[in-house]
Design brief:
2 copies of one chain form a homodimer. The first copy, chain A, contains 12 helices and 14 strands. Chain A is an alpha/beta fold and 312 residues long. Chain A has a domain of 194 residues: CofD-like domains (Rossmann fold), CATH 3.40.50.10680. In chain A, strand 11 and strand 12 form a beta hairpin. The longest helix of chain A has 17 residues. Chains A and B meet through helix 3, helix 4 and helix 5 of A and helix 3, helix 4 and helix 5 of B.
Amino acid sequence: MSVVAISGGVGGAKLALGLDRTLSAGELSVVVNTGDDFDHFGLKVCPDLDTVLYTLAGMADPIQGWGRRDETWTMMQTFAALGEETWFKLGDADTALHVARTHRLNQGATLSDVMEHFRTQFGVASRILPMTDDRVETRIETDEGDLAFQDYFVRRRCAPRALSIRFVDAATALPASGALAALSSPALEAIVLCPSNPYLSIDPLLAIVRLRESLENRAAPLIAVSPLIGGRAVKGPTAKIMQELGIPMTPTSVYEHYQGLIDALVVDSADADAANHIPVPVFSTATLMSSLEDRLRLARFVLDCARSLPRR
Amino acid sequence: MSVVAISGGVGGAKLALGLDRTLSAGELSVVVNTGDDFDHFGLKVCPDLDTVLYTLAGMADPIQGWGRRDETWTMMQTFAALGEETWFKLGDADTALHVARTHRLNQGATLSDVMEHFRTQFGVASRILPMTDDRVETRIETDEGDLAFQDYFVRRRCAPRALSIRFVDAATALPASGALAALSSPALEAIVLCPSNPYLSIDPLLAIVRLRESLENRAAPLIAVSPLIGGRAVKGPTAKIMQELGIPMTPTSVYEHYQGLIDALVVDSADADAANHIPVPVFSTATLMSSLEDRLRLARFVLDCARSLPRR
């Protein structure tokens, strides 16, 4: 079964892991948000791509969800001693990846090339595909000014009030050829929108015109998994952002956000009643993914739902 | 007493440490070879500058002499897992310095600016001055081809036979203003050529025309410390290089190499007899620096010798 998952960072990566472990080797491609990517100390840092990479490689920190397990922090200690900025935590193993990536990019490789090399080296069977090899930058207009994503998310810990979100250069960015090929493959049987933050992590992909078009022109069914559980967000700034943007914390909001794009929605059982009037098939199950077993179970559930949907 | 030491890496840094701890805070400036500097993974690595920095900061690895004590190697392990080159050992703390330096250089700082910032952050009282802020590259012509210094020294462990040594762009490089100012200061009372490799570590400085001129036009006495002990080199490729270049392992060779530039030579007691015919004052003492006490003792000895020499 050939499947594309569309993912942001931690939340999406959990379902991507379930899909990776459920499908046969090579059946899954994960198209990943790069709007959060940024240059830090001249190093190209790609938080969502790396979270997906570490998660699928079994290397992710099991507590935080991002970064690496058994990480060391010698470099950060030295940064502190040198009086350098330390608000963005760069683990030593993680930094090796950023250094190698930056070097390869500077030598002319695309981000897609680099991630393909990394996932192969780390023994990941699924493809990990940047949404674009161009630069797209998620920025948050807040009551404290216009902030780059990491400034907002990490340095300011989402404290400023969000007024709007934009994706600089998304309109002119081209989808990475790998992402486009995966979405246009005649063999594709399902597209899964992971339970990532729709506004911060999925919208950057949808803002890339040709990527959105290829989703709209899909032959395979597209099924989204709501990031809400009982009218709350599991983690991250989803709840705060939705509140500040005046969006109700309901599955209907998620549906309306993806309206015209999705063929079905998976919601948590706690939200099943609130999803009554959504005019596409709604499947409900427990969507909280605490354990690996949760991830596998939800992945199987989502794939079963997708199989029940007609091709378009 | 205002003193300039001229140094390469490990051997020179030992005497520089002795001088730093013997003189009052701020009296010492160390002008350091940058011919071994290179870009590795896009990071600017300055082996001699960093060895001097770590040594004076008390952070140097006490066994190797280069790199940091209590270093971790997580990054190298990840490089290995990623299939990246691992022949040049980048410790995690060491890499933090390279990352911060590269970033500052890319933002427009000079290498001198960066090293001044680093040594201040690390609480080093002596100034650590790159010989130049321009790029000068030491290359070794060998029987296996023309090799960049680190290729020859680290990757090939000095195995190829050296035919000649050259310093690319030294003729057009300008001395760093700090190095020039330290050497031209009217307050300067002595210049010490540390027992670094004359051919690999000191010659790059002498190849910079205006740096050599400022040494030739000095008012303060210049005293060199021979790197030989009993007709042998303490460590590194000095002996092999001298042999391959057909230079006898005698203090006379060291004198002749620095002829016209030095006012006196310090040799090891074991070489005193062999230094009989050298036509500048020769001072002999034990020059092996195994312990901190050795470094302090040799530093005091060299300073006493320098004090006994007339100004020019």
